[in-house]
Design brief:
This protein has 14 helices and 19 strands. The protein is α+β, with helices and mostly antiparallel strands. The chain folds into three domains: about 80 residues, Uridine Diphospho-n-acetylenolpyruvylglucosamine Reductase, domain 2 (2-Layer Sandwich), CATH 3.30.43.10; about 120 residues, Uridine Diphospho-n-acetylenolpyruvylglucosamine Reductase, domain 3, CATH 3.30.465; about 210 residues, 3-Layer(aba) Sandwich (Vanillyl-alcohol Oxidase, Chain A, domain 3). Strands 12, 13, 14, 15, 16, 17, 18 and 19 form an eight-stranded antiparallel β-sheet that branches. Helix 8 crosses helix 11 and helix 11 packs antiparallel against helix 12. The two termini are about 35 Å apart. The protein binds flavin-adenine dinucleotide (FAD).
């Protein structure tokens, strides 16, 4: 069967008989172990079109893989076809127009590397190995979101291979319905083969972690909820309940201690950052560690990469959060104190500022009135710990869920069922379902947080 695919593709076609099969089916989340029938490593749009036609004609489930970072493992599937876009890594920066065209196999690091040469950046996430494709299609938030919005708020145009095999361009002026749906609706509508983004002048930034002793966590969280709404948008501090990694360059005496962290990025020179961050340094108890420094933006983006190599076990759950009442803080601290592993964490990522200046119905991403996107992640290098991190993340989430807005960022969800997908899209769900009916009526692209045709 795969001989046909070999003939039609320039890229590699890998099935179970190939020595590279186990490597080719691996995902970032080591907890996911799927066995596809075949992996098509596409090198260009023609390969993607051929692979879609093959999967459709053979009646195979189709998984689309960009960076392979998806927590639920939607970058692969059992007994189906994986359309692996990782060889498609072209990036073209237009410094005069401040736009960037990127292929879907790029990681954030690939895009940051290319844009930084021109003193530019596209707002995206905070770990450089994350794929831009999955991140963008879910929304995309990171250090520059308060200032410049979500990744989708900076998306100008995409090329998409549809379920019927056609390639179309979607933007505000062409296939505007599809463009609306792709900005938050995930991989439901087709395979994006090119993203064109608006970039912003971002060069060196001031950032890094500040760690406070866990005994001060309640005070830091209460202070943070008041500070954030009034903080300049060039400053983005996210809050974490986590542990000091037992590795250099962290001070040995702190290794493994539970802490409350504020991890910041200030987009500007050190002198300005000092002023913006002064309240953090003067209004809170003395930190255990202040690791902030001036650095190139891509360096901040890659700061946590060494701590999070591929292959760890991950179980995560998310929710959007508007307020952080004292009662919620108490629940957070109870659960965070019982984290089963050093890497397990809770992060609150700010998505106020520019994110909130886009209407809830202007893109598929619904929760524009949230202050934070929360993730609770159980993480363990040891596969035997998979059950313990899963139990902890679920129980933590059940504790804090009543204090949240209900839906979660689609990129921070496991396979959690239709109710969760509906809660996430809220009023936008029916419009998404109608657009799904137009572009993918037979649900060819269903290995994702699936939108069901009405
Ligand atoms: C360590 C880590 C840090 C993270 N940090 C952030 C962060 O700071 N901000 C943030 O917003 N998110 C963050 N995420 C979440 C991240 O956005 C998701 O995991 C996302 O799914 C990753 O995209 P990918 O291309 O790597 O995933 P993949 O697993 O390759 O794909 C994920 C999904 O996207 C779809 N897809 C991928 N490529 C295409 C395409 N070209 N066309 C159509 N559909 C496609 C697939 O169908 C699949 O459902 C992080 C994840 C990890 C593991």
């Amino acid at each position: 069967m795969t001989a046909v695919l070999h003939e039609r593709l320039r890229g590699d076609v890998i099935d179970v008989t190939d020595d590279r099969y186990d490597e080719a089916r691996k995902l970032y989340n080591g907890m996911i172990d799927k066995r596809p029938r075949v992996v098509a490593r596409c090198t260009d749009v023609a390969d993607v079109m051929a692979a879609v036609a093959f999967g459709r004609d053979e009646g195979l489930p189709i998984a689309v893989r960009g960076g392979g970072h998806n927590g639920a493992g939607f970058g692969s599937c059992d007994e189906g076809l994986v359309i692996d876009l990782s060889p498609m890594k072209g990036v073209r920066v237009d410094p005069a127009q401040r736009t960037v065209r990127a292929e879907p196999g790029c990681t954030q690091g690939d895009v940051d590397h290319a844009t930084h040469a021109f003193g530019l950046a596209v707002p995206a996430g905070i770990v450089s190995s994350t794929g831009i494709a999955g991140l963008t299609l879910g929304g995309g938030h990171g250090y520059l979101s308060r200032q410049y919005g979500l990744t989708i708020d900076n998306l100008l145009e995409v090329d998409v291979v549809l379920a019927d095999g056609r390639l179309v361009t979607a933007s505000e002026s062409e296939h505007a319905d599809l463009f609306w749906a792709l900005r938050g609706g995930g991989g439901n509508f087709g395979i994006v083969t090119s993203f064109r983004y608006r970039a912003h002048p971002v060069d060196t930034v001031h950032g890094g972690p500040i760690f406070f002793a866990f005994e001060h966590a309640a005070e830091v969280m209460r202070w943070y909820r008041e500070f954030l709404p009034n903080a300049p948008e060039k400053l983005s501090p996210f809050l974490g309940l986590k542990s000091v990694p037992s590795t250099d360059p962290f001070p040995r005496e702190l290794w493994g201690s539970r802490i409350c962290a504020l991890v910041s990025c200030y987009d500007g020179p050190a002198e300005e950052a000092e002023v913006a961050m002064k309240p953090i340094r003067s209004e809170l108890p003395p930190p255990l560690l202040d690791g902030c420094a001036q650095m190139p933006y891509p360096a901040l983006q890659a700061l946590f990469d060494p701590l999070l190599p591929p292959g760890l076990q991950w179980y995560w759950k998310g929710d959007f959060v508007r307020d952080l009442p004292d009662a919620a803080i108490d629940v957070h601290l109870d659960h965070a104190a019982q984290a089963p592993t050093e890497l397990s964490l809770m992060h609150l990522y700010p998505i106020d500022g520019a994110v909130q200046r886009v209407g809830a119905d202007e893109t598929a991403f619904r929760h524009r009135d949230a202050t934070w996107s929360m993730v609770i992640a159980g993480i363990d290098p040891d596969p035997t710990g998979a059950d313990a991190i899963t139990r902890w993340a679920r129980s933590y989430w059940e504790g804090v869920h009543p204090f949240t807005m209900g839906g979660a960022y689609v990129n921070f969800m496991m396979e959690e069922g239709q109710d969760r997908v509906r809660a996430t899209y809220g009023d936008n769900y029916d419009r998404l379902a109608a657009i799904k009916g137009t572009y993918d009526p037979s649900n060819l692209f269903r290995v994702n947080q699936n939108i069901v045709v009405a």
